[in-house]
Amino acid sequence: MPKSSNWVADNNIEIFYKHWGAMKADIINPFLSSVANVLSTMAMLEVSPGKPSIKNDNISRGDISGIIGMTTDTINGSMAITFPANVVFEIVNRMLGEQVNEINETVTDLVGELTNMVVGGAKGQLEESGYDIGMATPVVVTGKDHEVIHKGQGQNILMPFNSEPGAFYVEVCFDG
Amino acid sequence: MPKSSNWVADNNIEIFYKHWGAMKADIINPFLSSVANVLSTMAMLEVSPGKPSIKNDNISRGDISGIIGMTTDTINGSMAITFPANVVFEIVNRMLGEQVNEINETVTDLVGELTNMVVGGAKGQLEESGYDIGMATPVVVTGKDHEVIHKGQGQNILMPFNSEPGAFYVEVCFDG
Question: Does a structural domain hold residue A2?
């Protein structure tokens, strides 16, 4: 069953948005439910959201990240999804039935595709709310313990997700 | 003196574009001259282009990258500029008069700004050629020896630049 904004409400994420205002939540929630949708549909991986925060720390270090830029008529932004190696290896195994133990092209291609799918899913939900989002092409970054820092003017929202193989991180930042 | 497409021609870059076609060169050249412009204007750093290639290798590893997504009505893309630590430290020193020896917020902010300026400069040149480009917000990635891989459908063009403190890399990838 596709996860909608109800999934966000059911997971008590909305209470954390109080001080960010409703409009920000309108934009961010579709990304969070899209992550849960894509991973449960494509990888049979159920995820649960951790506590979102305004990012002022370094806890999103991971081994591989998919990054995508977004543009609208009024505001622009970026999203990143960052995985530790063991988590992404399990996702590859579940999606492709392939055992990998190094970050090779199969893994980077898959993270690029996941990133596209997450933003594509969010874009669909956002269009229903009247936001028309242009998607740039994904960029994948690899490297042990790298860190991703969004430099949009707005707040950088960091959302940890938990899953059976471990935690991973989603960050969304929009100007304004 | 601002560097225009003449800078590209003077540096014999255009001959490498033969098999990519004129349209691709029309789009890529403004990014390359914008890199040279921004670094010479903002950091008093003269750069010379190395041999561009279709990226099939791992030579763009660096310690910090600025990444930005782009959208147009017809094609989308991404650009990354990747620096080794010693090169970015010298750029910080030239731009801010500050000695740094670790990748801190001053450095990541500056790389985010440089990325914005490079794409902004290219956007100006591209508008003159009739391409209207939407710019997403920059994302900065840090981590020793990380690698950046563009996952657009088109060819990923890797351009090494040489400068007094050392080499750095620019990658541009557009769909189609």
Answer: no
**What is the pTM for the complete model shown?**
0.87
Question: And the tokens for A29?
Answer: 């929630």
Specify the residue for token string 């209470």.
Answer: A15
pLDDT at B1: 47
Which residue in the set B67, B143, B174 is minimally distant from A67, CB to CB? B67
Distance CA B103, CA B123 (A): 28
Pairing of strands A62-71, A139-150: antiparallel
The stretches in chain A having pLDDT less than 70 are 1-24, 57-58, 176
Burial of B88 (0-12, 13-18, 19+ CB in 10 A): buried
Task: Summarize pLDDT for B13-57 with one digit per residue, the tens.
Answer: 554 454 455 556 777 888 989 999 999 999 999 999 888 787 776
What CATH number has the domain bearing residue A109? Answer: 3.40.1550.10
Number of domains in chain B: 1
Is residue A125 included in any domain, yes or no? yes
Check residue B165 and report its DSSP letter: T
Domain extent for B64: 7-174
CA geometry: angle B99, B102, B105, nearest 5 deg: 90
Residue B12 belongs to a domain: yes
- Cβ-based contacts under 8 A for chains A and B: 144
CB-based contact (8 Å) between A174 and chain B? yes
Chain B residues within an 8 Å CB radius of A61: 143
CA distance B131 to A22: 35
The reply to whether residue A137 touches residue B173, judged by beta carbons under 8 angstroms, is yes
Q: Nearest-CA distance from B10 to chain A in Å?
A: 31
Sheet strands (E) in A72-164:
76-83, 134-135, 139-150, 156-163
Sign of the CA dihedral running A73, A30, A47, A90 = negative
B168 φ/ψ sector (left φ>0, alpha ψ -120 to 50, else beta): beta
Whether B43 maps to a domain, the answer reads: yes
Cβ contact A139:A68 at 8 Å: yes
